[in-house]
TrEMBL record:
SUPFAM superfamilies tied to this protein: 6-phosphogluconate dehydrogenase C-terminal domain-like (SSF48179), NAD(P)-binding Rossmann-fold domains (SSF51735)
Hydrolase is among the record's keywords: no
Protein name, as recorded: 2-hydroxy-3-oxopropionate reductase
InterPro entries in UniProt: 3-OH-isobutyrate_DH-rel_CS, 6-PGluconate_DH-like_C_sf, 6PGD_dom2, 6PGDH_NADP-bd, HIBADH-like_NADP-bd, HIBADH-related, NAD(P)-bd_dom_sf
UniProt GO molecular function: 2-hydroxy-3-oxopropionate reductase activity; NAD binding; NADP binding
Domain 6-phosphogluconate dehydrogenase NADP-binding: 2-161
Domain of life: Bacteria
UniProt xrefs under Pfam families: NAD_binding_11, NAD_binding_2
Every 3-hydroxyisobutyrate dehydrogenase-like NAD-binding domain range: 164-284
PROSITE patterns: 3_HYDROXYISOBUT_DH
Organism: Granulosicoccus antarcticus IMCC3135
Active site: K170
Record gene name: garR_4
Keywords on record: NAD, Oxidoreductase
Keyword hit for NAD: yes
Amino acid sequence: MRITFIGLGNMGGPMARNIARAGYELTVYDLDPDKVAQLCALGAQPAISALDAATGADVVMTSLPNPKVTQAMATGPQGILAVMSKGSTWIEMSTNNLEVEREVRGAATVAGVHFLDAPVSGGIEGAAKGTLTIMVGGQAEIFAKNEALLNIVGENVQHMGSHGAGYVAKIAQVVLCYLHSVALSEALMLGVKGGVPADRMLSIIQNSTGRSYVSDRYGPAILDGSYDPGFALGLAHKDMALTLELAKSVEATLPMCTQVEAIYAQAVQKFGFDQNHLMAIKLLENANSMP
Ligand code: NAD
């Protein structure tokens, strides 16, 4: 099976490395040639463009920054659907909205290409260890055909339902990460302002009903401000914007999501796209005159 991986960033890079290490015949492409070179050191073949990469592949996997890039990858001037073989499969692993799913899958169907939306959760650590959670939408038989490949990059690979169900599940779960981050920082702030030392407050939260993945994983970083570069603030805001788009398209009223999207939008404007996503809570610290 000839695999192509396009988009070798924080997530796609480690995922592609795991596929190369598993012995698959792998071709890779990224706009950044250094990222391509890193994969070639593991035996992957370099491509000079997305079109070059997708030509002749049985499966193309993509991990791209936003819906616009995914749409262009499908049908733009360098759109890969023009060269993908009939009967081949595109596994799209970015976080995207339903509009992208409908548009890209529609174009894929016309081109005779199967399409699975297969976004991931687990961060760069999960991508490196091959322990990602992967939420897949699309035809059950196409999912079954590609399950072994997906198990190379994830350890919790689930077929969520028909086309688009992967993107919906991803957005509906990831929104909790941002809501919890803001909620955790507000709880910590309340405790600290009330005179409880921050580390004591976090320890109590981690051992009480308010405990969450966010309090365990990000709580210590929030206290000491040591934010790693793993996940960009701008991508976090993209997820929140996708949440509101999804809510609109399925006619769901989500007041907390609306507020948290506004916080992330303001944080991107103030601190920049590439800062760590936890910088959003700096707004709260600033509003409370904390260092
Ligand atoms: P990233 O910015 O690190 O990586 C994106 C990569 O795509 C970059 O290497 C970039 O050069 C490449 N790229 C952009 N346009 C391209 C094009 N036209 N052709 C080829 N390559 C192109 O982003 P990331 O953090 O790896 O995230 C990728 C996707 O995964 C996003 O949709 C994100 O929301 C999602 N995601 C990220 C995380 C995380 O923790 N980083 C977790 C879950 C999901």
